[in-house]
């Protein structure tokens, strides 16, 4: 009785290993995307801070009497 389901068990085991590999690949890709997202967020924050500083300097320049 064990012999008839052996090919099915083998096929399911092989498919499971393949899926486990794909999950690991996706986890790795997810980590890369998280790092990219953090870097983009930091870049956005730096641009925002730079623009705020530029506006502050321009405002200060035009608000002073010549």
Comma- or semicolon-separated keywords:
single chain; 66 residues; coiled coil
Account of the protein in words:
- The chain is mainly alpha-helical and 66 residues long.
- The protein has 1 helix and no strands.
- The radius of gyration is 29 Å and the shape is rod-shaped.
- The protein starts with a helix and ends with a helix.
- The model has no long low-confidence stretch (mean pLDDT 91).
- Residues 9-36 form a coiled coil.
- Keywords: Coiled coil.
Topology (SSEs and partners):
Layout: H1 2-63
Coiled coil: 9-36
Keywords: Coiled coil
Quick gist of this model?
It is built from 1 helix and no strands. The protein has one helix at 2-63. The longest helix has 62 residues, at 2-63.
Strand content: under 5%
Residue-averaged pLDDT, rounded?
91
Question: What are the segments in which pLDDT stays under 50 over at least 5 consecutive residues?
Answer: none
Number of helices: 1
Number of domains: 1
Q: End-to-end span in angstroms?
A: 99 Å
Largest sheet: none
Q: What structural class should be given to the helix and strand makeup?
A: mainly alpha
List SSEs in N-to-C order: H
Any idea what the radius of gyration is?
29 Å
Beta-strand segment tally: 0
Helix content: over 70%
Which shape, going by the Cα principal axes?
rod-shaped
């Amino acid at each position: 009785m064990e012999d008839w389901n052996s090919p099915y068990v083998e096929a399911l085991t092989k498919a499971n290993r393949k899926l486990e590999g794909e999950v690991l690949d996706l986890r790795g890709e997810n980590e890369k995307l998280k790092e990219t997202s953090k870097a983009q967020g930091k870049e956005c924050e730096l641009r925002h801070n730079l623009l705020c500083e530029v506006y502050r300097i321009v405002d200060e320049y035009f608000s002073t009497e010549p």
